[in-house]
Amino acid sequence: MVKPSGSTIINNPLYSYNFTNDDYRDNYFDGLPQEPYAQTLRQPEDDPPVSRNDLVSNALASTFPARKLSTFQLYSIENLSRFSAARYPGVSPPNSWASVEMIHNNIHGTVGGDKGHMRSPLVAAFDPIFWLHHAQVSTWVPHISPITNTNPAKVDRLTAIYQAIFPSSTVEPLVRTQPNLGYPEQGGIEDIDTLLYPFRHADGKEWTSRDVSSAESIHKYGYSYPEVPSGLSKEKLTAFASKEMQKLYAPDTDTDNFHKSPGGASVRTEWLAHVKYDQNQIAGTFNIMMYIGDVPSAPEGRVAVDTLVGTCTSFSGPQKLEYNSTIAGTVPLTPALVNKNLKPANRKEIVEYLRRNLHWKIMRVCSTVPYTSPQNTDMHDY
Ligand SMILES: [Cu+2]
Questions:
Q1: Is the peptide bond before 48 cis (omega within 30 degrees of 0)?
Q2: What is the whole-number distance in angstroms between the Cα of residue 124 and the centre of ligand 1?
């Protein structure tokens, strides 16, 4: 770091946050698995309590191809509510079961591990990586704006790109499905003018989704992203953002097993695992982990294996939810199949291969609330 007095070496401020007051921590974190830790930790081991960043890196790397393709899927969803929320959209897959919220949840689950701070909505924001993560994905998910899971409290990069590509898709009125968690009652319908308590502008006025209802609104607040630059007409911005999005997230048509359709277009058969479940069945955060190939028998080994292709994470506080909350997610399998030199278009071969090699486990961690095992699942606690 360069200071007026010359350059100096400082600890990486994004590595961890050191808590400064043990009494506050004991008080606010009372009963949470993170209570004993004097600093924020990622995938921690207990004795001594240290981060296992290598596990985080491995798990993020092995699930990267599926996450990249999921992100690409997002940009074929023409409805902002479906793009944003993991709530079961009431429509058939494939693409409508991808969501920014689910991609976001997966990062929380993977970085936090069994007891890390990122794992729990109550304490995740203490880990500095939270802010990098939310600049990239979303800031309106329930732990930030508890009154709604669709209204943006602030535009972020993936949403800004979305708004540039689909300028006419904005927040649609929806009936609230969650309790309002102590925030002022505002009626059963939430829309673009719903006040986003407790977030306020400098003048004290509450934020609403209307404040951030276009891609260009970020420029008004003094920032931009490389994919959403200022100074372009609406049409040019749409074209530019689409092109940049393709460069970032589209599969490579030269190498990723595309073939020519009769009409001449490059096409690929996609294989996706779809997941739909009621969050009420299990209290606290849990991961549904998808593997192609071997699954280590010991739960500790299941996070950092290269057979892990993707996750669907239910990201919630330690208490069992008291309201219906069916959510949906999707794990693209094609990159892993291509990686194994299988041809996605070879339907029969792929079905047989997946029957033998696709496995899934539920990992429930970071919670002391007892649960009843749902039917037809393989449950593992750390
Ligand atoms: Cu988050």
A1: yes
A2: 7
Per-residue pLDDT tens over the stretch 110-120: 999 888 999 88
pTM here is: 0.86
SS3 for 75? coil
**Closest by Cα among 319, 252, 321, 314 to 287:** 314
CA 99 – ligand 1 centroid, Å: 13
CA of 145 to the centre of ligand 1 (A): 11
What average pLDDT does range 120-147 have in this prediction?
68
Q: Per-residue pLDDT tens for 202-239?
A: 898 988 888 888 999 889 888 889 999 999 999 999 99
What is the distance in A from the centroid of ligand 1 to the CA of 337? 30
CA-to-CA separations, 8 to 1, 11, 164, in angstroms, rounded:
5, 10, 41
Q: Are 132 and 63 in contact (CB under 8 A)?
A: no
Strand partners, 260: 266
Q: Enumerate the β-bridge partners of residue 121.
A: none
Q: Where are the beta strands (DSSP E) in 179-285?
A: 189-190, 259-260, 266-267, 272-278
